[in-house]
From TrEMBL, chains A, B:
PANTHER family: ACETYLORNITHINE DEACETYLASE, PEPTIDASE M20 DIMERISATION DOMAIN-CONTAINING PROTEIN. Residues 203-315 form the Peptidase M20 dimerisation domain. Pfam families: M20_dimer (PF07687), Peptidase_M20 (PF01546). Its EC number is 3.4.-.-. This is ArgE/DapE family deacylase. Belongs to the peptidase M20A family. It comes from the Bacteria. GO terms for molecular function: hydrolase activity. It is an enzyme of class 3 (hydrolase).
Length: 430, 430
């Protein structure tokens, strides 16, 4: 009977797959970079309402989450940050509940001329959909929705409550997912179809963002010797940070999940800006850094060391010594999270269920992977005692040019998700 | 009689000095950074018209100047670039003609919180006027005007034609002064009261601006090893440019005017911008450089070497090798100019006249100075066979914070200018 159900679910996914690709394309066309997610969220809300989900749509209130563990500092308010959740209430309450989470925000496209086609005009070619956010992670949002659709097409609904979450802020803070926790959303497990090649993510890194502000007294370049170049003053600080990165990656600091990786922790100089006028010695520079930490590494200790490294390097510098840099945090304060360390029966049983569903969809064993990024999984795993399974389609060039997601991979993940839901939550007739 | 005239002119400058300070303050309050000079130019035009000068006010047309020697490349059009010239036509044509030139454009103020008081709300304290552009060079524009006023107050006018020029674009191209040449303005000498401490500028450097564009294929920082950081790729190029700067300053390359200066040629990394997102490996970076050249050094040869240095450094770099930088010129293509090399009788006589006027105003000999910046003097000296005297008041922190000009210095320069005009042009009764 399980086999029959699985076959029917897979057939239902196949039957609606053209629709699913169209949905993915429509969703990817919304340029939902941070601050601009409204139209994409409206599209998600309409889609959920049309399918009969109970709709919850709210603006994130910093005051409601800023005291919670896992909160990341933000600059400015959240006037434009809206979460959307569609809820299926099980009639029978016979099974376990589930959160199907995905983020709607995408990272900026960068220079348009480096794309082969416009980033927000998705196109399908040779089995891949191209477009910013198609992989990271709108294909996952589509998979969540169409997996549930497959159950409905079979005349079934999950036997436990299911919460379909479309959150903002995953790419910079995670405060969107945190706001769902704060609003009371809880379940027996969470599934997040981030694009990691149909692998199960068993560990993810933590991430800290910081911004370094340099100031100095500039002058006409004719007297460059007496002015201090704030842009060039950044270079020794960046060098010192890379030395810290090297130390943190040393074999003796690696937890088991990352023991095999020589360089799991990447420090990224992601942005820089400085100076106003070519013939003025620049008075200011600001640079933005992303640094990763291992699961178990303390954010506070990491910040202390980062600050120490920057200030020590600054004190070594003639100009900076008298004008020490200011370090500002306004983004990720994300701890690492390792599902592999969750020995609870709930976690083991969720992993087993996903393993089975994956094998049924693909004919292959579920590969486990420790990733070098972060995801919203940490909120469920660390702060809500909820095993969070990160498992999604294969994508390439995420955060890069010509980002793309493999459509057959999305199909397989959708099938696996439908079978996982049926197994985890059980089913009831509509 | 000359002594009497000088005394009368000095008294007239003193009598109107409060008015002059008020005028300088009003002019400095106009935030005439590039593209925003209109209100300051309108103020200059009104001031000139009220005094009875024949007014000429026109928008720079790139097509009219782009073929001329001394033209600097610009990006965009000149819709907002307006020059103002007020002309005094001598009734008697008994003396020599003169251009009194000054630039109305000022450089950006930089971060406002680094100013003790707002840069465009000038204030006077302890004999200095503070404000962006007060020194560079609105005090000079005031000096030009009020020197002529002093003659008028004595019932006199210059005995030759005098052209009072208020030009734009001095701080980035010099195309404002060039447009005055192209429009036919010519005279026997030019005076430009740039703020060089009442010294006579005998040599000035050339300046080249260039912009370096770096591009690469970025990716999620989780895979930083496979992405190329466009910001960090800039660092070795900047290092190589500083090595070039060092070579160009070597003793054997210095012309006589600069033989005593170890580091006359400054390379300034004036601006940088790169990256879109802290957790994306940056795909692009752009930096802006100002490099000086000696008088006599060829711009074309300098550009060739700059390009060679950048491309050689890029070919040494794993990432840049496959994505060579693009070098864009969009600002100064300024040759050096040495008044000291002008042995013409006209130049010698102009310098002698200024020397005398300066001694009469200050009681001290006129100091000669080779400066490490450029000024619009090159257009008159190199392309119009007109000796250009750069001689203006003492200012501090030009292009810096709390830029200020010494008011007593402006007073002395105004007196010297009035006496120089009377000597050079002769006088006629109004």
């Amino acid at each position: 009977m399980q086999d029959d159900l699985n076959t029917n679910l897979c057939n239902a996914v196949d039957a609606a797959f053209d629709q699913q690709v169209q949905f993915l394309s429509d969703l990817t066309a919304h340029p939902s970079i941070r601050g601009n997610e409204q139209s994409a969220q409206a599209f998600m809300a309409t889609t959920l309402s049309e399918r009969g989900y109970e709709l919850d749509r709210w603006q994130i209130d910093v005051a409601e989450i800023s005291h919670l563990p896992g909160f990341s500092p933000v600059i400015g308010d959240y006037e434009d940050a809206v979460n959307v959740v569609g809820t299926h209430r099980s009639r029978t309450q016979s099974g376990r509940s589930l959160i199907l989470n995905g983020h709607i925000d995408v990272v900026p496209a960068g220079p348009l001329d480096m794309w082969d086609s416009p980033p927000f005009e998705p196109r399908v070619e040779d089995g891949w959909l191209y477009g910013r956010g198609g992989g990271d992670m709108k294909a996952g949002l589509a998979s969540n929705l169409f997996a549930l659709d497959a159950l409905a097409a079979c005349g079934l609904a999950p036997g436990g409550d299911v919460f379909v979450q479309s959150v903002v802020e995953e790419e910079c803070t995670g405060n969107g997912a945190l706001a769902c926790l704060a609003r009371g959303y809880a379940a027996d497990a969470a599934l997040i179809p981030e694009p990691f090649s149909e692998h199960l993510v068993t560990a993810q890194l933590g991430v800290i963002w910081f911004q370094v502000h340099l100031r100095g007294r500039p002058t006409h370049v004719a007297y460059a010797g007496s002015g201090a170049n704030a842009i060039e003053a950044a270079f020794p600080l960046i060098r010192a940070l890379h030395e810290m990165e090297h130390r943190w990656n040393a074999a003796e600091h690696r937890p088991a999940d990352y023991a095999h990786m020589d360089h799991a922790l990447n420090l990224n100089l992601g942005k820089i800006e400085g100076g106003d006028w070519t013939s003025s010695v620049p008075a200011w520079a600001v640079f933005d850094v992303r640094m990763a930490i291992f699961p178990g590494q303390s954010i506070e200790a990491a910040k202390t060391e980062i600050e120490q490294v920057i200030l020590d390097a600054a004190r070594d510098n003639d100009f900076l010594r008298n004008s020490l840099p200011e370090i500002v945090y306004h983004g990720f304060h994300a701890e690492g999270y390792a599902l592999s360390q969750d020995s609870s029966a709930k976690a083991q049983s969720a992993i087993a269920a996903l393993d089975q569903a994956h094998q049924a969809a693909t004919g292959e064993a579920l590969v486990r992977e420790a990733i070098t990024a972060t995801t919203d999984a940490r909120f469920f795993g660390l702060y809500a005692d909820t095993p969070a399974l990160v498992y999604g389609p294969r994508a390439e060039a995420i955060h890069g040019f010509n980002e793309r997601v493999e459509l057959e991979s999305m199909r397989r993940v959708t099938k696996a998700t439908a079978m996982f839901i049926a197994d985890w939550c059980g089913v009831e007739t509509i």
